[in-house]
Amino acid sequence: MSAFLKQQSVGHRPKKSKVFTLEELERFLETASDDEYLLLKVVLIVRVFGGWRIGKLVSMLVDDVDDRGSVIVVEIPDRKTHKPRTFTIINGSNTVHAIDVFRKYRMLRSENIPHKRLFINYRNKKCTVQPNPEEYTGHSFRRSSATLLADAEADTTIVKIHGGWPLLWKDT
C-alpha cells in the first residue's frame, strides 16, 4: 500500500542506494588503519560476503563461525524460516586477505566476555565488554538526559521544560 501511495505522490523519486565498486571496497581494506577501522572492516567483509542486513550482524554469535583454515564458514539460524543461512569467507586475489582480517578481529576477543555475541565494542586496539544492551531502550537517552540535568542541580521546572513534561504546578 505504501508503494502505491508513493507512486501516486507528486514529485516522488524512489531512492536507490549506491553500490560500492570492488575497487572501493579493496581500497578501504588496504588503506584504512586496523587500529581504528578493524571492526568496520570485519563488518564490511561479513556484509559483502553474506549479503546481510545490519540486523543480522547483531545476532551473530562466536559459535556461528567455523574457521576451517582456508575458508571461514558462517552459519546463522534464521528466526523466521527456522533454516540457517550460510556463507563463506575466502581470500580473494587482492592484497588484503579477508580471512586474516576476520581472524585478527576475532583474536582480540577476551575470554572473560560474558556473552557470545561476535561483534563487541572495539576501541584503542582492544575488544571490550559493552553494557548489557538488553537493559537499555531508546527511552534510556531521554531518562539519562533528565537525570544528568537534575544531577547538575537544575531547577525542577527547567528539567520539566527540557523534557517537554507538563507544568501542572509551580515548584517552590
TrEMBL record:
Q: Name one GO biological process term.
A: DNA recombination
Q: Does the keyword Signal apply?
A: no
Locate the Tyr recombinase domain: which residues? 15-172
- What Gene3D superfamilies would the database entry show? Intergrase catalytic core
Q: Which UniProt keywords apply?
A: DNA recombination, DNA-binding
Tell me the superkingdom of the source. Answer: Eukaryota
Supply one GO molecular-function term.
DNA binding
Q: Which positions, given as ranges, span the membrane?
A: none
Q: Does the keyword DNA-binding apply?
A: yes
Q: What is this protein called?
A: Phage integrase domain containing protein
